[in-house]
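ping. complex inputs:
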Amino acid sequence: MAKRPAFADWLDDTNDVTRMFLAAGQIPGLINLAGGLPDPQLYPARALADLAHAALTETPQDALNYAPIEGYGALRDALATRYETDKLKLTRENVLITSGGIQGLELIGKVLLNEGGAIATQTPTYLGALDAWRPRRPTYRPMRPDANDFDPAVALRGCQFGYTVPNFSNPTGKLVPTNVRAALVEAAQSTGTWLVEDDPYGALYYDETPLPRMIELAGDGAPYDGPVIYLGSLSKELAPGLRIGWVIAAPEMIAKLTLAKQGSDMSTSGLSQVLTLRTFETGLDARVLPDILTLYAARRDALCAAMETHLTPWFDWEKPVGGMFVWAVARNPDFNTDDLLQAALRAKTCVSPSSVFDPLGEDRRAIRINFTLNSEPQLAEGIRRLAVACQEVDLR
Amino acid sequence: MAKRPAFADWLDDTNDVTRMFLAAGQIPGLINLAGGLPDPQLYPARALADLAHAALTETPQDALNYAPIEGYGALRDALATRYETDKLKLTRENVLITSGGIQGLELIGKVLLNEGGAIATQTPTYLGALDAWRPRRPTYRPMRPDANDFDPAVALRGCQFGYTVPNFSNPTGKLVPTNVRAALVEAAQSTGTWLVEDDPYGALYYDETPLPRMIELAGDGAPYDGPVIYLGSLSKELAPGLRIGWVIAAPEMIAKLTLAKQGSDMSTSGLSQVLTLRTFETGLDARVLPDILTLYAARRDALCAAMETHLTPWFDWEKPVGGMFVWAVARNPDFNTDDLLQAALRAKTCVSPSSVFDPLGEDRRAIRINFTLNSEPQLAEGIRRLAVACQEVDLR
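pong. complex structure:
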């Protein structure tokens, strides 16, 4: 047989992280603190079973026919209502339903990036966003909103868009403060740059009052046409397996994203959309949320207590007020968390090293630890094992 | 506010067809013969409601958690078994679950096309495939498998892949004969080119015994590693709203498509996948199929009878032995079916003009007529209106 044609060039850019984590999944007894998964025991499966049965018997065509590319009208209306404020005026023309949050990111890349296009991204940043944009081989300009000399206009000028996760950033778990949010919005307006507000963790505030969304700050009381492209998701608030996300943006952007979605998957599952609408209508998501917050807050506390006991010789961190992650930075700038991961796997635990969250792949000094998936005893044991791994790296 | 950045260049290449068809949907009393939709009354909604309830109560984690990127193992196994023959040896490593058939096409473009990459495509061809690949701005080499001088090796050599719909091609409704299938497979092997076999209509044979699939012809009794990339879908056999498709290909190709899918939507709806598995396990799809075939065959006959009565002055066509479409070619080479569509809309009916199925956008001589969505009286009335439109174009 003749030699087959080469694969597309961007596939040369992929790293081994996914393969490594998949291999980790095969280790018996591993305590996985690396992922970003909800605890499946929180999914309201029985309530969803009843809603699915009702959806398929009462509105079978909505559930089983091709949905409109941009999503069901009633669900788009429900989301417009959900996010509307006095200043932020929304209609369904501002809303696109996506097949999970990551599809929103991919579609934004599709409509805004020619090969090599420039993105200003909060750094460290979400690994999945880098995956979504890799086929366009973008250039990245790092943004560090917590740096003293951060100038949003300098960061955004000349880029196709800026990318931020203002609530409990993946990976750092930190909040972008309100004044920086406002400055980013103002810079997006003054430079004409689009500004992506990726917000999968926005409901997961454990201790504090939620800060205003950037898209709210961009609202001016007129029908929304601002530069902020907001991404929401059902994955962290209800269940990821339904693959439902949404984009809220200027109608011009929604129209282009719709064109791009047509060639990606035509439309999002009708069954999942009808189920999401019924979830909102019956208030199921609101009923589930208090249990989610209680469980995750307790786990965050348990994780931080275990870290206090075991990791202080090596790491500094801040206790996050929400989200799913603690970000720990090594005290010694020469500490290499890629090496730590290898040692951690030998000790039967697993965290995410900072290199995978750096668009330039350089940061080796930090780790991301998840606290939502494992029980309190598992978290404590995982951190004990991580300390064993730290000792091993230390002694090399 | 400053001027916003330009959208990606490929968006300049999109045509107005979608917008025109969407506008057509607003015309009261329109009989739409343009689409390619199943008849929703055939969806087994009650049976699916029971299966969905059972899936969410009995295997809630499979339905509600993130599915593996490549799809549920049990569903991949079921599809490997479904397609396996004596010569075609398959395991789950040969199978990827996709969010509908069009995602399979998009992922193939993602992993095989750099900007401007070459595709040899059966012409006329599926509009959705053109949409899926447009962001990569490919170059197209038309393949006409029914031409007397068709040479598959000449067509495929130097291309990244060939694209065919051998069963009831969209738009022509024709079969690629077995000897041409075999010649295409042989040419793919001798030239080292990938060969995409897109098969959404493969179950819709009304009169004849199904021809062998190209992927079967490529099987040699060893674990499958051939050049044919087969795409299947649940959309035409059960219901499109679940958004379930599958790719069957060499493990090397499945691995690359999986990498691409990770950045597209992470995974396909778990609920839809579990529902599909239970559909296969309970034989629901097989129980539904006879009713689908009976209804669609009768409608095909009704459509062709109406065409015989009304369209013979203007068009020639062959009665298809399966699928969803009749392809009618104008007797007069100067007949312009783009103009016909405008006249048809005024007469309150709608067909698809050949220009949209031509990768080069040039063919103006034919139309695609769908017979699966409308009742027999609607089909007859739609064709009567189309004849009125033909008369109008004729008289200009």
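The first helix of chain A runs from residue 17 to 24.
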